[in-house]
Amino acid sequence: MAGITIFEFDAMAVLPSGSHDMVGLHRISADVFAWLETQALRNAEAGESTWLRLTQRHGLRAIQVKSFVGVIRCPDGFQIEVLPKLGKANGEADARQLLIEMLCCLGSFRHIQTNSAQLQARRMPLLEVFIAEFLRAVDNTVKRGLRSDYRAQQDNLFALRGKLNMAQHLRLNLCRRDRFYTEFDEFSLNRPENRLLHTTLKRVLKWTASQANQQLARELCFVFAEIPTSDQINADFGRIRPDRGMAHYDAAMAWARLILLDESPLTGTGQHSAPSLLFPMEAVFEAFVAKHLARQLNSGHDLRPQTRSLRLVRHKEQDWFQLKPDLLVQTAKTNRLVLDTKWKLVDERKANSKEKYGLNQSDFYQLHAYGQSYLDGKGDVILIYPKTETFGQALTVFSFPKSPDLRLWVLPFCLSTRQMHLPQCGSLAPFFSSVT
């Protein structure tokens, strides 16, 4: 299946015939461009945050993918694989491996077998890796046994079975004394979970171009051949019950939700359905940091994600403007540190009042508000950015003239070692162990 691989903030355009792809600008067809342009305009008109931006590159109208990663599927089947910008220097395979490891920290992707998926990522596109993981999960479910359930049935039978439906029996069998219109429960594999898995198998069989995935999908479809597909997907998901003995369905059903309901932050839809598995890198980076920073935390302290207990102002007996830091370090339920993650590039070489390392003023306002509300204006607040070649160590501490007891740190988090680099002064040593 046709497709391209790009990185965050790369752009796509309809290039003149005979020209080659340029740095950060990739060739797509006029139909694909028109569909992407429709998505960008629709979101902009609705006032929603969009994953695409209309722009210009080299004098050409172009569409730029913003800070989102994953897979975009266009209505004609054309696939656009979007990888993290920090992986560009090391190539597509390493970037895919990094993304898969980071996605494992998201709740909806907790079922990924990291080692298996990373091995596949070196030789196949991201969507094929996702499909392979879904098929692996379904195969495991089948091997442990598909579950049946009692299903209410009505039929005109030659023998009385269950309960006689007198009204229907008299209407249909007044002259047929050899028949009984009955209502009965039948123990059947036709239950919502199995219908949804069969539906998902049919869908990924259309998507995949991998011979191995196609073969396994066909084998699994054969297993589900006697089970109908779901004609009411949302209703069937609502009918799922957490019965005993169904834990081995969890991974397969999690993937089914992602594929059938497009339970990623975005779904690209034009005139025709075109599901996209796209994820904002801000959320992916936050989940990755939260998981691994907890391991770096010294004993006696707790790391709490997405705290949302305080508001910025009170007006007419109402609390307004929620203050929701990404992470909060507590000691014996007392707030000690406030941390916020930012998927942005910091350049320690730009240490001047004009460029300010590439930092955003709004982020500092935000952390100052967190410090005042959660720490009573005393202590340390931390901005965490990904470690890069231009940002390898903690910046000199920032102070607030009107809040002399509040300090702000800008620290790098290394994606390969999965650790946050601490300032050499040791101010944060009571809370975190140093990078080894």
Features:
Trna Endonuclease, Chain: A, domain 1, 11 helices, seven-stranded mixed β-sheet, single chain, alpha+beta, 436 residues
Describe this structure in words.
The protein is 32% helix and 26% strand. The protein has 436 residues and is of the alpha+beta class. Strands 12, 15, 16, 17, 18, 19 and 20 form a seven-stranded mixed beta sheet that branches. β6 (68-73) and β7 (79-83) form a beta hairpin. α2 (92-103) runs antiparallel to α3 and α6 packs across α9. It folds into three domains: 3-145 and 192-281, no CATH class; 149-188, no CATH class; 297-420, Trna Endonuclease, Chain: A, domain 1 (3-Layer(aba) Sandwich). The chain has eleven helices and 20 strands. InterPro entries: McrC. It comes from Halopseudomonas yangmingensis. This is 5-methylcytosine-specific restriction enzyme subunit McrC.
Radius of gyration (Å): 27 Å
The overall pLDDT average reads 83
Number of helices: 11
Count of domains: 3
Low-confidence stretches are: 263-275
Q: Overall 3D geometry?
A: globular
Percent of residues in helical segments? 25-40%
Structural class: alpha+beta
> Strand tally, please?
20
The fraction of residues assigned to DSSP E strands is: 25-35%
Largest sheet: 7 strands, mixed
Question: What is the terminal-to-terminal distance?
Answer: 44 Å
Helix/strand layout:
Blueprint: E1 3-7, E2 11-13, E3 25-27, H1 30-45, E4 52-57, E5 60-65, E6 68-73, E7 79-83, H2 92-103, H3 114-121, H4 126-144, E8 149-157, E9 163-164, H5 166-173, E10 180-188, H6 192-207, H7 211-223, H8 233-239, H9 250-260, E11 277-280, H10 281-296, E12 302-305, E13 310-315, E14 318-323, E15 327-331, E16 334-341, H11 361-374, E17 379-386, E18 398-400, E19 403-414, E20 419-420
Parallel strand pairs: 1-7, 2-3, 16-17, 17-19
Antiparallel strand pairs: 2-5, 4-5, 6-7, 6-11, 8-10, 9-10, 12-15, 13-14, 15-16, 18-19, 19-20
Helix pairs in contact: 2-3, 3-4, 4-7, 4-9, 6-7, 6-8, 6-9
